[in-house]
């Protein structure tokens, strides 16, 4: 290859790239009503931020073209013509997707994903009618083809007589170009590749749809199986009505009663803290705090992974689709998280996790639901406190959180996610001998985490904000278990839920009930006396009279607990078990009739989840 051929490759890619921001500007003007009320500076920021996704899309679409353009290979007129075709056709297809979505977006309220292909029969049946109605979209498409063909940069004949670079130079250059292409596709050298959800970091959700392009969302959804529409009820409205008949979605107006609407909220998510470890005495400080708190030991995580915990805890959405929502093609749907809802009430919002940025996509997800400040390992001042595996040791990091909280504006909503009780259960060598081992490998690290919490609370007792803060402690999921009470379909999800306030005794609200992660969001709003402007029908406030439920999904089966009955449902057939008081015994109910109401309730949750995510109307159908 000659030096000018690298410049020509750059010009060709630049030509393809220029169309994406142009189409995005057209998209903005085609949807002015959608973006109404948003400041021009924010619009401009989204347009500029979108270049990151445009570049990634361009490089994905043109990866074969780039590789064939830089490999040391004898060129001919036919070869260069085939390269031109390889450039023109994929880029036309990619850009036409964006042009089509100028109109299609108004139907879905989100950018296109592969699940549009499920509408193939409908589209084919209406092809003529759709073509005539949207005829004007063919104009920019044809112009695009002509412009790309006409402006495609070519080598000048004189260049063909220039001296070629030797193989010792072209091979390293080819490798460099391929590596840079890969980095560009990833969106940078960060821990995880960018994904659609990272477009939704703006305060206004609408700006995420302006930043991202439809080709990118389409490509990123390839291979991700979409949800199937469910029709257990004739309409989603009937499913909602069924739940309203059964559940108590009222609020106790705790905030108005105690007049503490501007209280701070500090949510602590402890890695892998099973209820079993607490009952077996591995967390003495936690038990001491629990005795002064509103505490539920029949609380359930709505998933088995950290990736599933955050949407359940912060957005009130259980994991019912077999994978974390923010790693599916529905990640760009509109979600209202607790951070966003409290931001609307004047709260500052922060998320603290001592791991690297990009770990489990926590940073992208939390920003998409309203977190202003994300603090990670890279922000921590003393890297000597890194455990060598996951991040900063818990007792160091919690001390850092205490000091950083002094700097945030009040009222605040801070979420803290610990990490030291994650395998390999690292403990600082200087204090390792202070914690006795248990019967499971994790037990020693649980003692350490409990110690870390105790040190944290001792420190913050002296803080000015301490007495005006509601502390919520739970765990993301369980881990290794050893007792029969927990090594079963319910015990594997049992994690603690504790609400503690230094000045308000919440124990008066204690009642026998089941709680779960998705109850946290409505409970916090009830505590603050804040109206939930985007209610869902999954969880309820733990302060009302509802008896509570547990919802989960694993290995193709829905798990549903409404004491004392446990249902296992594969989508068609349900099996009902009666559960003993200590949750260790499950007895199959001989007469399965008479449980239609419970099965109907579970079907309502499934229908609202599948259809709501698929149609991007999860909230509107549940009002």
How would you explain this protein's 3D organization?
This protein has 623 residues and is of the alpha/beta class. 41% of the residues lie in helices and 10% in strands. The chain contains 22 helices and 14 strands. The strands form three sheets. Strands 2-8-7-1-6-4-5 form a seven-stranded mixed beta sheet, sandwiched between helices. Strand 10 (550-554) and strand 11 form a beta hairpin. It is globular, with a radius of gyration of 28 Å. The model has no long low-confidence stretch (mean pLDDT 90).
Radius of gyration: 28 Å
Task: Quickly count the helices.
Answer: 22
- Binned, the helix content reads 40-55%
What ranges have pLDDT less than 50 throughout 5 or more consecutive residues?
A: none
Q: Tell me the span between the first and last alpha carbons.
A: 63 Å
Mean pLDDT: 90
Secondary structure category: alpha/beta
The number of E-state strands comes to 14
Largest sheet: 7 strands, mixed
The proportion of residues in beta strands is 5-15%
Give the overall form: globular
Strand order of the largest sheet: 2-8-7-1-6-4-5
């Amino acid at each position: 290859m000659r030096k000018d051929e690298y410049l020509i490759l750059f010009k060709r890619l630049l030509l393809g790239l220029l169309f994406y921001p142009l189409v995005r500007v057209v998209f903005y003007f085609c949807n002015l009503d959608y973006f109404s009320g948003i400041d021009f500076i924010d619009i401009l920021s989204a347009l500029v931020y979108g270049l990151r996704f445009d570049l990634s899309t361009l490089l994905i679409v043109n990866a074969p073209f780039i590789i064939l353009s830089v490999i040391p290979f004898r060129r001919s007129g036919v070869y260069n013509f085939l390269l031109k075709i390889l450039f023109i056709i994929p880029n036309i297809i990619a850009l036409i997707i964006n042009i089509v979505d100028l109109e299609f977006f108004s139907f879905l309220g989100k950018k296109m994903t592969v699940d549009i292909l499920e509408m193939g029969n409908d589209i084919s049946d209406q092809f003529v009618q759709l073509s005539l109605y949207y005829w004007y979209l063919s104009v920019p498409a044809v112009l695009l083809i002509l412009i790309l063909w006409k402006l495609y940069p070519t080598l000048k004949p004189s260049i063909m007589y220039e001296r070629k670079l030797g193989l010792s130079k072209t091979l390293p250059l080819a490798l460099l170009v391929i590596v840079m292409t890969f980095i560009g596709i990833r969106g940078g050298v960060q821990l995880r590749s960018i994904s659609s959800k990272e477009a939704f970091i703006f305060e206004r959700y609408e700006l995420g749809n302006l930043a991202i392009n439809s080709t990118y969302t389409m490509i990123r959804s390839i291979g991700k199986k979409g949800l199937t529409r469910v029709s257990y009820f004739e309409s989603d409205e009937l499913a909602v009505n069924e739940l309203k008949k059964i559940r108590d979605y009222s609020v106790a107006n705790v905030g108005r009663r105690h007049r503490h609407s501007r209280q701070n909220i500090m949510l602590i998510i402890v890695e892998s803290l099973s209820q079993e470890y607490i009952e077996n005495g591995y967390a003495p400080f936690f038990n001491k705090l629990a005795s002064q708190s509103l505490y539920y030991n029949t609380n359930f995580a709505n998933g088995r992974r950290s990736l599933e915990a955050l949407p359940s805890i912060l957005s009130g959405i259980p994991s019912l689709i077999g994978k974390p929502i923010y790693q599916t093609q529905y990640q760009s749907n509109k979600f209202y998280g607790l951070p966003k809802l409290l931001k609307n009430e004047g709260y500052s919002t922060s998320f603290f996790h001592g791991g690297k940025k990009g770990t489990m996509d926590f940073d992208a997800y939390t920003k998409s639901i309203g977190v202003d400040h994300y603090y990670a390992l890279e922000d921590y001042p003393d890297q000597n406190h890194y455990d060598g595996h996951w991040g900063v040791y818990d007792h160091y990091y919690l001390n850092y959180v205490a000091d950083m909280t002094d700097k945030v504006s009040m009222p605040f909503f801070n979420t803290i996610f610990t990490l030291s009780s994650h395998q390999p259960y690292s403990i600082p060598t200087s204090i390792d001998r202070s914690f006795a081992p248990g019967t499971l490998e994790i037990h020693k690290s649980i003692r350490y985490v409990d110690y870390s919490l105790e040190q944290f609370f001792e420190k913050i007792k002296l803080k000015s904000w301490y007495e005006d803060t509601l502390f919520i402690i739970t765990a993301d999921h369980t881990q290794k278990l050893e007792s029969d009470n927990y090594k079963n379909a319910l015990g594997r999800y049992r994690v603690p839920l504790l609400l503690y306030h230094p000045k308000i005794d919440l124990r008066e609200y204690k009642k026998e009930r089941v709680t779960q992660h998705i109850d946290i969001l409505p409970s916090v709003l009830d505590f603050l006396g804040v109206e939930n402007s985007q209610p869902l029908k999954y969880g309820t406030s733990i302060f009302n009279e509802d008896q509570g439920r547990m919802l989960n999904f694993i290995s193709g089966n829905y798990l549903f607990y409404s004491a004392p009955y446990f249902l296992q449902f594969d989508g068609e057939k349900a099996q009902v078990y009666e559960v003993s008081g200590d949750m260790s015994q499950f007895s199959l109910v001989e007469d399965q009739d008479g449980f239609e109401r419970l099965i109907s309730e579970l079907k309502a949750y499934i229908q609202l989840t599948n259809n709501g995510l698929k149609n991007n109307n999860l909230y509107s159908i549940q009002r």
